[in-house]
Design goal:
136 residues; alpha+beta; five-stranded antiparallel β-sheet; 3 helices; 26% strand; globular
Length: 136
Amino acid sequence: MNRTDHTGYIQAVTTRLDEEEVRVTATRIGTTEGLRWAELDLEPEDCPRLNEDRREEHYVVSWDEEAGWGICAQMASGRRSEVYEHGLQVAPPVETAALWVLGHTLEFYPPRPDGPFRAREEHTPALEERLAAHTV
C-alpha cells in the first residue's frame, strides 16, 4: 500500500494559519507505529482565549490520520487539557482546517462524542489524494 507523506498538508495548514496571524512556534511531524501525526504549538499572544488562571501556557494543535484535527491547552504543570476535535473529516481542505483552528483560538467548542474516523491500517484513497495534493 502506497502511503503519502503528510508533511506538505501540515505545512499548508501552518502557512494558512500564518496568513491569519496565528503563528506556529513549533512543529512536530512524524509516523509512529504506522500512524501519521503532527503537532503544532501556537504562539500564546495569538490565542486570546488562553486562561492564565488555569495556568494554560499555549495551545497545541494535533492531527493524525485516525482522529483528524484536535486542539488542547498545554498547562504549566506539563499536562494537557482535554482535546477538542474537529469532528467532520480526517483531512478537511487546508482552508477549512485553518479556519477551524482560528476559531478555537478565540473560543473552544465541545469535544466530538464519536470515535476515530478510520484505522491507520485502512486504505483510504480520498485521504491519500488530499495529502498528495500538498506533497513537498
